[in-house]
Specification:
This protein has 17 helices and 13 strands. Strand 1 and strand 2 (86-87) form a beta hairpin. Helix content is 39%, strand content 16%. The protein is elongated, with a radius of gyration of 33 Å. By secondary structure, the chain is an alpha/beta fold.
Length: 437
């Protein structure tokens, strides 16, 4: 039996224990009388005695002891309701830039959850408050096809201003249990820069979750990124502080049609993915349903390859002009490093340091890794450079090397090889510290 602080029994910090003993009363007699078991009925009995003045007030009247069995019966199973991003019975925040694909992937994963039989579609309520009429109709058709419910402000009697009262009504009526509500997007339901308003809204969300509901809140990020280039959740920290789980989302293009979307976990109270990536394909004239169907989870190796390809592409774009100058020099038959650098400086406005850096960054045997030339040892271990066979053929064409090399490389789109590091074919070249890792 749980012990109750004696100050709650005597009301004087225990000072009257001697008097109780002298009167032939046990100091624990009040506990045996009204505190033997602090279940729901016992707690009410104690409250009645306190109100009648028979006992001093104590917080122990609110103790949950004796209710663990009934509470366990209402406890939700640890089920995933959005990939491995959101767990049933939790409050999950997802922060993403506009048009990053957060709504798209959320809908795709909800459909996956419904198809798996984890959650019945009629228990999922998607509040679409961040769409135009056409977008709403497209998404509503998808909701109808898969059995989940979609709400929108100003439609069918639903008003945003009544959201909190509706949630609390569900809690009071016992209708929150097992329901999953998606808020898209957060700023339409609470002023994200107002700490007090966000805190009050979070209290309502917490009450809904405590009653057995689940909430997934989609939100935006700041316009500016942090010093490392990462997205920053918009608004005050109150919602993310009160959430059980939180992710930031960022996206990048992969080729002309594919978009990679990375979910990065910032807070968790369960076994969710620390980082997970999805890909979707975007084409001209595509329907939203086709866009949803194109969503796929990306494996770790594929993500590594895609990330590497993006870095190679960015480096090639940044070094485009210098690469063409160096290809022009190498096509004349100049090979010795010092002579290549000297000739490139003379033919351009670039510094000697920049020429050396680019010469190192694009040196190797893999076109897929952004290499255009390779290095070989000459007399007295001198470093010499020559174009890769593919580019050597290009420079012999009538068109010359300018821009042609990029067109050919981009057009071929060779398979990325992450196993072969960038650099000068295993030789130490000046400026290697600037190479892609």
């Amino acid at each position: 039996m749980s012990q109750i602080p004696l100050s709650c029994v005597t009301g004087d910090g225990g000072g009257n224990l001697a008097a109780l003993g002298g009167a032939g009363l046990s100091p624990l007699a009040p506990m045996a009388d009204g505190f033997a078991s602090l279940g729901e009925s016992e707690g009410q009995a104690q409250a009645d005695k306190e109100q009648a003045g028979d006992l001093p007030f104590c917080l122990s009247r609110f103790a949950l002891n004796g209710r663990s069995a009934s509470m366990r019966e209402r406890m939700l199973a640890d089920l995933y309701i959005l990939g491995r991003i959101a767990i049933l019975g939790q409050f999950t925040m997802i922060y993403a830039p506009p048009n990053a694909g957060k709504t798209l992937i959320t809908i795709a994963l909800l459909i996956e959850t419904i198809k798996s039989g984890t959650i019945p579609g009629h228990d999922i309520l998607y509040i679409n408050a961040d769409d135009n009429y056409k977008g709403l109709v497209e998404k509503l058709a998808i909701a109808e096809a898969h059995g989940f419910l979609m709400l929108a402000p100003g439609e069918n009697g639903y008003q945003l201003a009544q959201t909190e009262s509706h949630l609390m009504r569900m809690v009071q009526d016992g209708a929150a249990y097992g329901k999953v509500v998606i808020f898209d997007t957060c700023k339409k339901f609470a002023p994200i820069m107002d700490k007090r308003a966000c805190s009050e809204f979070a209290k309502v969300i917490r009450a809904f979750v405590q009653a057995g509901g689940s909430v997934i809140m989609l939100a935006h990020v700041n316009k500016h990124r942090d010093i490392a280039g990462h997205v920053i959740p918009a608004g005050t920290s109150d919602l993310i502080d009160d959430a059980d789980c939180a992710y930031t989302v960022d996206s990048s293009t992969q080729g002309d049609d594919n978009v990679l979307v990375v979910f990065d976990n910032k807070k968790s109270r369960g076994d969710v993915d620390d980082k997970v990536t999805y890909r979707y394909t975007r084409t001209a004239g595509q329907t939203y349903e086709a866009l949803v169907t194109s969503v796929q989870r990306v494996g770790e190796q594929e993500l590594k390859s895609a990330t590497h390809a993006k870095r190679v592409s960015e480096l090639m774009t940044a070094n485009n002009e210098v690469i063409n100058v160096l290809m022009d020099v190498l096509s004349t038959g100049v090979t010795l490093k010092t002579e290549v650098v000297k000739a490139a400086v003379e033919r351009s406005h670039f510094s000697r340091e920049r020429i050396r850096k680019v010469l190192s960054e694009h040196c190797g045997k893999s076109m897929a890794d952004g290499h255009f030339w390779e290095v070989f040892n000459g007399e007295k271990h001198s470093h010499h450079y020559r174009l890769l066979p593919f580019y050597e053929k290009l420079t012999r064409s009538a068109d010359g090397p300018a821009d042609t090399a990029y067109t050919a490389l981009d057009g071929n789109e060779p398979q990325i090889s992450v196993n072969e590091p960038l650099g000068c074919g295993g030789l130490k070249c000046e400026g290697d510290e600037g190479s892609i890792e």
